[in-house]
Amino acid sequence: MTASLPKYYFRTRENGAAVFRVDTENRQRRIEMEQIALVNIRNGEIKPHGDRKLTNDDIGAIRDWIEDRVQRLAWRDIDDILRTADHLNLTTQWAQSKATPEQLEAVTDQLLLAMHDLRSVLVRKKSEILMGKNNKD
Fold first, then answer.
1. Which domain holds residue 125?
2. For residue range 33-70, what is the model confidence (pLDDT) as tens digits?
3. Angle ∠(111,112,118) on CA atoms, nearest 5
4. Residue 53 and residue 104 in one domain
5. Residue 102 pLDDT level (bands cut at 50, 70, 90)
6. Percent of the chain having pLDDT more than 70?
7. 136 belongs to a structural domain
8. Residue 16 and residue 66 in one domain
9. Residues 6+ apart with CB under 8 A from 7
10. 122-to-51, 91, 118, 119, 129 alpha-carbon distances in Å
């Protein structure tokens, strides 16, 4: 265990986190965590837990966590998409070199529909972007 623990612990949840204040300064030298708030990252709402009053330090730490969390989740989205592109390349290689006719029959329709749908969306979005840039010129 590290010499000093962070002042706050964020237990991530679907849309945010439960926020705990970490206390190691007690007689038993145990780690105690007191829940102080709930955070919703979708709307930025910070709800004090029970009838607690949040300090400026509490709110600042929570806002910093929200900013970091939103950036981290956005990065994960991009990373997932890049991994998908890698996986499509691996799938192409598999289909070309290893797949049996039965395996291809099992996956081809689903892959073709998914790729057609993705291509349609990407072409439309790319067109919207290009048209938007041309309208600004």
1. 100-137
2. 999 999 999 999 999 999 999 999 999 999 999 999 99
3. 90
4. no
5. very high
6. 94
7. yes
8. yes
9. 21, 22, 57, 61
10. 49, 20, 6, 5, 10
